[in-house]
Amino acid sequence: MDLLTFALLLLVLLCLLLGAGLWISMSLAAVGYVAMTFVHPSPGLFLASAFWESTGSWTLAALPMFVWMGEILFRTKLSEELFNGLSPWVRRIPGGLLHVNILACGIFGSVSGSSAATCATVSKIALPELKKRGYSESVAIGSLATSGTLGILIPPSIIMVVYAVAAEVSIIRVFIAGCLPGLLVMLLFSAYIAIWAKLNPDKQPPPEPRLSFGEKMRASAQLIPCALLIIATIGSMFVGWATATEAAAFGVLGSLILAAVTGVLTWQSFLDSLRGATRLSCMIMFILAGAAFLTKAMALTGIPAALAQGAASLNLGPYGLIAILTVVYVLLGTALDGVSMIVLTTSIVIPLVQHAGFDLVWFGIFIVLLVEIAEITPPVGFNLFVMQTMTGKEQTEVAMASLPFFLMLVLTVVLCTLFPVTLVTGLPDWLLSR
Question: Hey, how many other C-beta atoms are within 10 angstroms of the C-beta on 418?
């Protein structure tokens, strides 16, 4: 049996297992076991070692800590304080308080790391307020659904940790590389809102009264706890004082203190946050373990190397390869979540990307941007589900409201591909070389 036929049979087996409803981690491990039996007499030994090596990593210890930090903050009044602290500064800009959706999601995402948590938490505060003041419900829903995806692009990000571990690159370098693309996405979202507001003045309330500088500063005092937590968590990594795992531990401590100060830290909320973090962390690590075994099996069969040689023989060129991968990931995003997309494809895609000469840190940000797009792509766009639950609207209606912002994400992918050093890899290279 030639390698191409063997690879297609494995792909069919994986699709059948996933379609039958088997857990993703078990499906990956089962396909890896089948592949391994053709090249090694004792696949069970590789299964045990792959599971242990993939989950016993010190680097991966940052993952459950960041997840727990997000769970704790989800139960605080942080989103309400963000909305109240940011709104005085944007109420006179075209689009008014709609810009708060972008800013609040960006800031909350930087301390949460979760797209769904960012979307749900900020929406819970912003939607009633915007509806009460007469803002367009469609633009409000679309901006919140897409801005919630900033939770996985602005560091620290759970998806970034998963990619860094799977691709064996520096977590801190990937974190830093996500900063400028995250700011670019926020600017593009706000630019669209401002242009829309200028073209549709009848679909927004009249400008609110001006506030004095002192009144704005007093309202912004509510941003201090969040700002301190961001500085403590991200700043300690950027300046080299802490590793990603140590920074995650500081983040958990800071979020616990913040929850205690705001009066929402009870024994029950503490246990709820711990249970939520444990469930999500175990799910992600189990998927990573299955993917690690499949990666090891693929390497022994020689399928990734053969695919890399095949792609090179097509003479697609680097941008041709990226165009194909973009289509593949968008299609995957219609049926899988971000973590599954990354771990399912890493063993195959990384050799192709390296052979084409792309930087793996840049490719990590490229994948994260595509995962952002997947979060608002029907039928399995997680943020669409969140907004559907929050608003009671049909998923198609939420998806149509998100379409203009979806196009802004596509534009970001194009810009990051055309200017990789300026927008992605230049900042981590400059900071970490000092």
Answer: 10
Q: Is the peptide bond before 128 cis (omega within 30 degrees of 0)?
A: no
Note the helical H segments in 170-317: 171-177, 179-199, 213-220, 224-230, 236-238, 244-261, 267-301, 303-313
Tens digits of per-residue pLDDT, 358-405?
Answer: 899 999 999 889 888 877 877 656 677 777 777 778 778 888 888 899
Radius of gyration for the chain, computed over Cα atoms and rounded to the nearest angstrom: 22
Short-list 187, 129, 185, CA closest to 152:
185
Q: Cα–Cα distances in Å, from 268 out to 66, 265, 271, 275, 394?
A: 20, 8, 5, 10, 34
CA 367 to chain centre: 9
CB distance 299 to 347 below 8 Å: yes
For the CA atoms of 151, 385, 371, 184, what is the dihedral angle to 10 degrees?
-50
Tokens of 310: 């095949």
411-427: per-residue pLDDT in tens? 999 999 999 999 999 99
- Residue 180 CB neighbours (<10 A): 19
Written as one letter, the residue type at 57 is S
List alpha helices for 302-394, DSSP H.
303-313, 318-333, 338-356, 360-375, 382-391
The type of residue at 251 is: G
H/E element, 392: none
Burial 269-287 (b: 16+ CB within 10 A, else e): bbeebeebbeebbebbbbb
| Residue 185 contacts residue 412 (beta carbons within 8 Å) | yes
Angle at 61 between CA 376 and CA 27, to 5 degrees: 55
